[in-house]
Design goal:
398 residues, Butyryl-Coa Dehydrogenase, subunit A, domain 1, Butyryl-CoA Dehydrogenase, subunit A, domain 2, binds flavin-adenine dinucleotide
């Protein structure tokens, strides 16, 4: 969908914002995403002179995080829809960078949820890089799946926050997969909580990662979304005030449902952008590439394959917008958010793979842009929960 087409269903203010975001995605995110993807050492992605920092700076200048938009005077349903459209634009620019920018808001979201002015001041103002630290080396799907019923999870948690007097003392580690784990200033830490009588569930805790006792792992080297830095976070006797536990274990699965719902709905909208990028590239290549004397788009099978790509992209887009609006307008809608994430990421992978097929041999070459999209999309089917595990979780809500 072009920005002009979006304009047929949203107002002038949204169009202006989307035009700015599209420009940012095209002129900043795309080239930087490609540059960072090519770096063989993932440590270079976060070094002091990396263009990654330029992306964060330019993004914060746009002033488009969901809380800033909430203060724009637009009604909540239009803000929610706009959020979905913005995520699509960011994903269209570069999905690894999009996730890096989007996950950054998690600590701020938790602080806003608390309603506590001190937490809002510390974690909710400004544009500090944030992360959502939930998975652990020994518990990936487990921690997503058992979230609120952590007591029933097989095996010992790798990270525990224990109440000691009027503070929580955090020890252990989170997985190498924490997005922004190597650079985040603040964490929305979801981990096992012991209030004095053993582990009683999972809590959502705000942690300033610049404090003593926090150390990081090396940036992870992976197949796709290479612009997205990831790495372990280690905690050794890290103390935070009890009030930093915004989501307490007695809320059961509510806390993990909120986090997962937000993350999955955002993923859905973002990966519509990846489908769109692959689809647009495939259409334009099919119009240029001549075989048997005509552009390949004239061949029926190519037309038909392009239609299947279009169909998947549009279906993902409508589900993604619905999921983001549902979350933005009421209680977290985990089933719908999961349906959106699974559909959009699976579709993005299939659409990007088909784009490679339409490019023929060139699709496999690093000099052309589509192989990167397929690698980026491949990672998304595991990110924020393996799709098959998420499906089982959604089915439990039936
Ligand atoms: C790009 C990316 C970004 C990420 N970002 C974050 C982040 O910001 N924060 C964070 O904390 N984590 C993050 N993760 C981690 C992600 O959530 C986990 O990788 C994911 O939940 C799967 O966990 P795992 O890798 O340990 O796989 P495992 O849980 O070991 O799963 C391995 C296989 O077993 C299957 N399986 C596991 N359990 C079951 C079950 N009960 N029933 C049936 N099959 C099962 C899975 O489907 C999978 O095929 C990210 C991951 C990726 C790839």
């Amino acid at each position: 969908m072009t920005v002009a087409e979006i304009g047929t269903i949203v107002g002038q203010e949204e169009q202006e914002i989307l035009a700015l975001v599209h420009n940012f995605a095209e002129t900043v995110m795309r080239p930087v995403g490609i540059e960072l993807d090519k770096l063989s050492d993932p440590s270079d992605v976060i070094k002091a002179d990396s263009p990654l920092w330029h992306v964060f700076e330019r993004y914060s200048e746009l002033g488009i995080d969901m809380f800033e938009l909430s203060n724009s005077g637009l009604p909540p349903n239009r803000v929610a829809l706009l959020n979905a459209m913005i995520s699509e634009e960011l994903g269209w620019g570069d999905s690894g960078l999009a996730i890096s920018l989007e996950v950054s808001i998690f600590p701020k979201a938790l602080a806003m949820m608390s309603g506590n002015p001190e937490l809002i001041e510390q974690f909710g103002s400004g544009h500090a890089v944030g992360c959502w630290a939930i998975t652990e080396p020994d518990h990936g799907s487990d921690v997503i799946f058992f979230g609120g019923q952590l007591k029933d999870m097989p095996g010992k948690p790798n990270c525990i926050a224990k109440k000691v007097g009027d503070v929580l003392e955090i020890n252990g580690q989170k997985a190498a997969w924490v997005s922004n784990g190597t650079i985040a200033k603040n964490a929305a830490l979801f981990c096992a909580v012991d209030l004095g009588e053993g582990i009683c569930g999972m809590g959502g805790i705000l942690v300033d990662l610049s404090q003593q006792g926090v150390t990081r792992g090396a940036p992870l080297d992976k197949i796709g979304q290479r612009a997205l830095n990831q790495g372990e976070i280690y905690f050794e006797n890290v103390r935070v005030p009890l009030r930093n536990m915004v989501i307490s274990p007695d809320l059961g699965s509510f806390g993990s449902d909120v986090g997962l719902s937000m993350a999955n709905a955002g993923m859905g909208a973002t990966f519509v952008g990846v489908s769109r990028a692959a689809f647009e590239l495939a259409v334009s290549y099919a119009k240029e590439r001549i075989q048997k004397g005509v552009p390949i788009i004239e061949h029926q099978s190519v037309k038909s394959r392009l239609f299947q790509m279009y169909r998947k992209m549009e279906a993902s887009r409508h589900l993604a917008r619905q999921a983001v609006v549902n979350n933005g307008m009421g209680a977290p809608d985990l089933k719908m958010s999961i349906a959106s994430k699974v559909t959009a990421t699976q579709s993005a992978f299939e659409v990007a793979s088909e784009a490679i097929q339409i490019y023929g041999g060139n699709g496999l070459a690093k000099a052309y842009p589509v192989e990167k999209l397929m690698r980026d999309a491949r990672a998304s089917m595991i990110e924020d929960g393996c799709n098959e595990v998420l499906g089982m979780m959604a089915a439990e809500k039936f």
